[in-house]
Amino acid sequence: MFKALYLTQSDDRTLNCALTELDESQLPAGEVLVQVSHSTLNYKDGLAITGKAPVVRSFPMVPGIDFAGTVLESSDPRYKQGDAVILNGWGVGETHWGGLAQKARVKADWLVPMPAGMTAAKAMALGTAGYTAMLCVMRLQQQGITPDQGPVLVTGANGGVGTIAIALLSRLGYTVHASTGRMHEAEHLKALGASELVDRATLSGPGKPLQKERWAAAVDSVGSHTLANVCASIKYGGAVAACGLAQGMDFPASVAPFILRGVTLAGVDSVMAPYARRAQAWARLVSELPAEVLASNTETIKLADAPAVAAKLLQGQVRGRVVVDVNA
Question: Rounded to two decimals, what is the model's pTM?
Answer without folding.
Answer: 0.90
